[in-house]
Design goal:
The complex is a heterodimer of chains A (312) and B (276). With 312 residues, chain A is an all-alpha fold. Chain A is 74% helix and 1% strand. Chain A is built from 14 helices and two strands. Chain B has a single domain, classed as MetI-like (MetI-like fold), CATH 1.10.3720.10. The longest helix of chain B is centred in the N-terminal third of the chain and has 34 residues, at 62-95. The chains are: A mainly alpha (312), B mainly alpha (276).
């Protein structure tokens, strides 16, 4: 059901945009048939692999279902949700996830904006800077995560040696900071690319005019450039927020969720594949799904982010 | 206006700092992969004793070569099918008026934003029941599904830019519809499709959670997931060197690939996001 409301929310702008609705002529009807025909294979695959399993997960989340004793599976109503929501593990995981999401998206936005300005405006080596900046985007997350893990391992890593051979990955606070560092390093270039595309849409005349009117560089940036970039910024933030909220790879490799660094995805994984508790695990999965839907709706409704691909 | 000396040095410093930040972590993994096992616990940035042993080690075991093959095969097949299906749908989204279009765009966006962990369990259960668990199709099918939103989104942005009137013009000049498509439209659509294929392949190559949960052996496990199962040459050896070497092997080709196609990737990532 969450699925359905989401579709409507994301689709609305197009419906509103399409404007006049013609009487269906023969040609229009043929066009509609062709449209459905062309979309059918993609829609079937997406429904089979994504939509159907979500409903199956909802069904599983209402069962007491231990994979070690599949024969004893039975319907228990909402009690799995009760168990998850009254567990301190869930709230801790949610807190850790929110901390990682908010800090890393904020840092990526700040660094991404600086990087975008650099790639857009620098007067030297522009091509080289742009090329090198794509490296973190291209690198496999798991590979990069191992690099960070070893860098912070005492007696192995140069960073650990630099900071007095402590073992920062074994302490909650510093481990979360390293997870955020790995996340920010990897995804800032992606953010910067989206922001740079927004920057290129700001007409130069406007910033020039502001300069003639005596606006300082900072005023030109905050009063002219930023407002014009708002749509690009919101899309970039929406993408990255939803992506950061699902964080799994980096945490799994860096700490495996140990020492209180587990995110909601890691908690779900542990319940599903370590404890083999499909009921509880599915309830966690559905709750994560609901959180993601809430974040998306907040962005679209409150900040007015246009769902990408649907026009303004 | 000419840049002053102060501005010049400012930009140069910013450029250098940026490039160092981007490069150091990569150079570090490469350096680790060349460290001799006896010096791996020596926290210098560059190896003091160089060796190829880590590379010859990982390529002598099917624990790595098989997953590497899986990654390539699964990635290519999933990308091919995904881009094919996505171009049909994207053509419809970009060119045709039909009811349900916004629902399609909405659904694919929703899937793109999906928390993968929410699908890991149901897929795990379904695939075990269907005998797809731990097989190539067991990963290819979900990858197609998750490549589709990316594909539809990027391709419909590209397709909107194609001057479709040319097709009509070619037909007027006596081309058959097939000729018009092959000679005129296909060459115009090809760059967008290549770009999309690159983005989808990068997603498949990078994916970890499903590769990790929907496989049990190296029969279908892809390289990123295989890294997490590496052990040292003996029970007591730390696999730092082999993991680093494997990380380099799966990363360097992709980095070269990304740098080679950088214009297309940048165009692909930003096309839909800005033009809307």
């Amino acid at each position: 059901m969450t699925a359905k409301t989401e579709v409507v929310t994301a689709g609305e702008p197009v419906a509103a945009n399409r404007g006049h609705r013609k009487q269906l002529s023969e040609g229009a009807r043929a066009e509609r048939r062709l449209g459905w025909l062309l979309c059918a294979p993609a829609v079937v695959v997406m429904i089979v692999v994504a939509a159907f399993p979500v409903f199956y997960a909802i069904y599983l989340s209402l069962q007491r279902y231990d994979l070690r004793f599949p024969a004893q599976a039975h319907f228990v109503g909402l009690s799995n949700y009760g168990a998850v929501l009254s567990s301190s593990y869930w709230w801790h995981a949610l807190m850790v996830t929110l901390i990682i999401t908010v800090i890393s998206v904020a840092a990526e936005f700040a660094f991404g904006m600086l990087l975008a300005l650099l790639m857009f405006r620098t007067i030297f080596m522009r091509g080289v800077v742009r090329t090198i900046s794509l490296i973190p985007y291209g690198i496999v997350t798991v590979a990069a995560a191992y690099g960070w893990q070893y860098a912070w391992t005492p007696n192995t890593g140069y960073l650990s040696a630099l900071f007095g051979d402590s073992a920062p990955l074994t302490k909650t606070g510093t481990a979360i900071a390293i997870i955020i560092l790995a996340e920010v390093w990897k995804t800032t270039p992606f953010m910067a690319l989206l922001l740079m595309a927004g920057l290129s849409l700001v007409p130069e005349d406007l910033t020039k005019a502001a300069r003639v009117d005596g606006a300082s560089a900072w005023q030109r940036f905050t009063r002219v450039t930023l407002p014009l970039m708002k749509p690009a910024i919101l899309v970039a933030l929406l993408f990255r927020t939803l992506d950061a909220f699902r964080i799994f790879d980096n945490i799994y490799i860096l700490t495996a969720g140990g020492n209180g660094t587990y995110s909601v995805s890691i908690l779900g994984y542990d319940n599903l594949f370590r404890a083999l508790n499909l009921g509880i695990g599915s309830a966690i999965s559905i709750l994560i799904f609901v959180c993601v839907a809430i974040i998306a709706v907040l962005y679209i409704k409150i900040f007015g982010a246009a769902a990408p691909g649907t026009g303004k | 206006m000419a840049a002053t000396a102060k501005q010049k040095s400012g930009w140069i410093t910013a450029n250098i700092v940026t490039m160092l930040v981007m490069l150091i972590p990569v150079v570090w993994i490469v350096s680790l992969s060349f460290k001799d096992p006896s010096t791996i616990t020596d926290p210098t940035f560059f190896p003091r004793k160089w060796t190829w042993a880590n590379y010859s080690g990982i390529f002598s075991t099917s624990d790595f070569t098989r997953p590497l093959l899986n990654s390539i095969g699964i990635g290519l097949i999933a990308t091919f099918i995904s881009v094919l299906l996505a171009s049909l749908a994207a053509y419809a989204v970009a060119r045709l008026a039909f009811r349900g279009k916004s629902a399609l765009v909405g659904m694919s966006l929703m899937i793109a934003m999906f928390p993968l962990i929410s699908l890991a369990t149901p897929l795990f259960n379904i695939e075990r029941a269907l005998g797809l668990f731990n097989t190539w199709p067991g990963l290819i099918i979900p990858y197609i599904a998750f490549g589709l939103p990316l594909g539809i989104y990027t391709l419909s942005a590209f397709f909107r830019e194609i001057p479709w009137e040319l097709e009509k013009a070619a037909k007027m000049d006596g081309a058959t519809p097939f000729q018009a498509f092959v000679r005129v439209i296909a060459p115009l659509a090809a760059p967008g499709m290549v770009t999309t294929a690159i983005l989808v392949f990068l997603f498949c190559w990078n994916e970890f959670l499903l590769a990790f949960t929907l496989t049990a052996t190296t029969a279908a496990r892809t390289a990123p997931a295989a890294l997490a199962f590496f052990t040292g040459s003996s029970q007591f050896a730390v696999p730092t060197g082999s993991i680093s070497a494997a990380a380099v092997v799966i990363t360097i080709p992709i980095i070269i690939f990304v740098l080679f196609f950088q214009r297309r990737i940048v165009a692909g990532l930003t096309s839909g996001a800005v033009k809307g």
